Amino acid sequence: MSEVKDDRRYTKDHEWARREGSELVIGITQYAVEQLGDVTLVDLNVKPGSEVTAGATFGTVESVKTLSDLYAPVTGKVTRVNGELTNAPELVNDDPWGRGWMLAIEPADAGSYDTLLDAAAYGALTG
Amino acid sequence: MTDALRETPLAAAHRALGARMVPFAGWSMPVQYEGLVAEHHAVRQRAGLFDVSHMGELELEGPEALAVIDELVTNDLRAAAIGQAVYTCCCDERGGTLDDLIVYKRGEERILVVCNASNREKISAHVARHAAGRAAFRDASDATALLALQGPRAFAVLDAVGTEPAPLGQALRPFRLCDARVAGVECVVARTGYTGEDGVELFCAWDRAAALWSALMEAGRPLGLAPAGLGARDTLRLEARLCLYGHELDEDTTPLEAGLAWVVKLGKPRFVGKDALAAAAAAPLRKQLVGFEVTGRGIARSGYPLQDSAGAVVGTCTSGSPSPTLGKNLGLGWVPPGLTAVGTRLQVDCRGKPVEAVVVPTPFYKRPRAG
Prior knowledge:
The complex is a heterodimer.
Chain A: E1 9-10, E2 15-20, E3 23-28, H1 30-36, E4 39-44, E5 51-52, E6 57-63, E7 67-71, E8 76-81, H2 84-87, H3 91-94, E9 103-107, H4 119-126
Antiparallel strand pairs in A: 1-2, 2-3, 3-9, 4-6, 5-8, 6-7, 8-9
Chain B: E1 6-7, H1 11-16, E2 20-24, E3 27-32, H2 36-45, E4 47-51, E5 56-61, H3 65-70, E6 84-91, E7 97-107, E8 110-115, H4 120-131, E9 136-139, E10 144-150, H5 154-161, E11 163-164, H6 168-171, E12 177-182, E13 185-190, E14 199-205, H7 209-220, E15 225-227, H8 230-239, H9 274-282, E16 288-294, E17 305-308, E18 313-323, E19 328-335, E20 345-350, E21 353-360
């Protein structure tokens, strides 16, 4: 069974969101990475300043065999993207909870974080 | 699909190795164990063991056995030696490809045909119909397991597990087969494969496959042998530019279009599809298979449209993947005959995003010649 971190919240589509000041840092879970296999391409279709809507795609992640859409957990404005992933997509495999982060969002509604799944609920989903 | 998936005799072994099982042509098959890329590299650098027991095995016997199959395939089997394996296509009257096969001449009157799992019923019925009254036909697929041991250390693994006769590597040339005992299990051993590496395919009785698999894994582990799944099989065959039925070949595609003119022998007196293929060979091809490298940021996938450099749709990607060996994103696809020259600029429509690609020579990967 893959690890779930209790310092962050989750979507049913296997993104995680972690509070960092007023931002939410977004990535995909270890479970998602295990399902994908070797990640070879992370393609974000947003940049700092882009508006994202909860449930809408902000890019794709591709492994050797499959392609998977990435969904914004909350509505808000993109403040940062992880440019390291352009040349080092394997960071998503090596460190999905840390250096494999994908983008940071300033949520339109500060309360939207609390509507996401907590670790127990997400763990139950993937257990 | 409500039909239960069929299992090979190695299903328990796969599960014990932590395989992820997926449905494939009606079978539950391992797509990967530790990881696709690691398995891919194991086959290129050391050795990998594949369960391909889902493949179809058809047997023909009798004085006319060879003639029966020769009339159904595009390659010329008439001069094949005993113990020779021949890659070929099997076409319909229109020249469309029903399947690609390996025909093994086991004896003067004894033929083994290996077909794709997805085409087994079709090819089995086709061959049976043609053999009626002329040769004894048996679909041995349910009784025959098939293991593929592939990679530069494949013969070292065979030596380690023990064969009779031994060593097998000396006597068995590429595209030849022999009867042998491997780890005490009676096998037909063929020096064939689907990875672009040296190696063998081992046919054995269904109920002996588990013993053969575990003996090979045990003897092979110290040599770096890894179990390898269908995922690695697909990336390996793509690098070697081997066609996959349903992708590069189908009933609307001639072997000529797929770059397999070398297995179409129009000099043969007759075979099913000969007239159509002779006409096709005399005219410009409707489409042609090319290999390309994606030079922009994107991965080509089967079914993605291919465009010319001006953005007009000209064809379709048939297979595409990152290449673990070459570190590039590769693809095969249909283009019009005018766009096949190496260096031709193409674009892959990756879900609405045009990504630059260029036609490159194939095979993408060719194994270094052993000394």
